[in-house]
Design brief:
single chain; alpha+beta; Chitinase A, domain 3; 2 domains; 4-stranded antiparallel β-sheet; elongated
Length: 369
């Protein structure tokens, strides 16, 4: 009898101790995510970075949008683990960037901090409720506004004038000439007529075979005459305006990089531009939502270099395009060896990707909510 009583008391004591231990864990301070030299960042900073890492995960090479992200692997590890590692890196990055700027004597000014706060305020409305549940606007100002300002300033401090890896105007110009294209073009559909071409009560805009053949012959004739010096691109565009009874300008100019052409134009455009000589004019068909035909003139992009680089904002655009990947690798390497940061493991372990991500079957793409 006494033995049974002792066993019951022991079991009761174990239950009490277990409950006490669980309560102690649940009451641990979960308000912060990372600490360095006594300074702590709110847990909301980590949560926003966790959400951002989910979006980044969906863009990784090899990720299949027809399957739930959380059922896949990224770089050889479960997606959830990859996302968590990225979120921790993003969060650790805050202290790394600040220390780097301090070491270079380039800490954010009050005006830059205010700009970061303003940027965060403008973006706050786009943050989903599932994230705002855990992220205050103040945390968002740190994770998004201030962190992005520091990231950009460190980049400019390193690669800008007087920086350790300053890029000269000559280097920028060479990069511009290597990656950008300057071309003019006139376009026509080979499937549909414009409203100006309709006659009388005609409503069907579909081209007949004869009309398609005539349009093809017209554009091929433009290219032949321009290359022979009998017509200019401008004159061809004016003639085409008359043909289709339009008041709209038909000659378009583009000064863009190759990536933009790949993403915004039919593939035939860049393929032909890469084969063409400066000043050459070609006529060729393009495919997309519907068949079309273009007359394209390739201009010497070097002639536009000085004007382009001289325009406000363009130098920064070129510099970012030229060095952003190198800079990202450098920051990642720096964070990898950065010491003195402590994570609140108990706090960050409570957040899971399933809270911010919903898989939508193939009919529409997966998205972070």
């Amino acid at each position: 009898m006494k033995m049974k009583m002792k066993k019951k008391l022991a079991a009761l004591l174990l239950a009490v101790l277990t409950a006490f231990g669980a309560a102690s864990c649940s009451t641990a301070d979960q308000s912060w995510s990372v600490e360095k030299d006594g300074e702590r960042l709110p847990v909301g900073v980590y949560v926003y970075n966790f959400y951002s890492a989910i979006a980044a995960a969906q863009q990784q090479e090899g990720v299949d949008s027809s399957v739930s992200l959380l059922e896949q692997q990224i770089d050889g590890q479960p997606a959830e683990d990859w996302i968590r590692d990225e979120a921790m890196r993003y969060t650790k990055e805050y202290f790394y960037l600040r220390d780097q700027l301090d070491a270079l004597g380039a800490s954010l000014t009050d005006e830059e901090k205010a700009q970061g706060k303003s940027n965060a305020a403008a973006a706050w409305g786009y943050i989903p409720a599932s994230v705002k549940k855990y992220v205050s606007q103040e945390s968002f100002e740190i994770a998004y506004g201030e962190a992005n300002m520091m990231y950009t300033k460190l980049f400019n401090t390193i690669y800008g004038e007087g920086g350790e890896k300053a890029v000269s105007d000559d280097e920028l110009r060479a990069y511009f000439e290597e990656t950008y294209y300057d071309f003019d073009y006139i376009f026509s559909s080979l499937a549909y007529k414009t409203s100006g071409e309709l006659t009388g009560d005609e409503e069907d805009t579909t081209m007949t075979e004869e009309e398609t053949a005539a349009r093809r012959e017209l554009f091929e004739g433009y290219a032949e005459k321009i290359n022979a010096g009998e017509m200019t691109m401008e004159e061809a565009a004016e003639d085409f305006k008359t043909v289709i009874s339009s008041e709209d300008e038909q000659l378009s100019n583009q000064l863009v990089d190759g990536e933009y052409i790949n993403s915004s134009f039919p593939s035939e455009i860049k393929t032909n531009l890469d084969e063409m000589q400066n000043g050459e004019v070609r006529c060729f068909e393009v495919t997309g939502l519907s068949k079309g035909i273009v007359v394209v003139r390739k201009n010497n992009v070097a002639d536009s270099a000085d004007d382009y680089i001289g325009q406000e904002g363009n130098r920064q655009t070129l510099l970012s395009s030229m060095k952003s990947e190198e800079y990202l690798d450098m920051v990642k390497a720096g964070i990898e060896s950065y010491e003195g940061v402590t994570f609140n493991d108990a706090a960050i372990a409570t957040y899971h990707a399933s809270e911010f991500y919903t898989f939508t079957p193939p009919a529409s793409s997966s998205a972070a909510e």
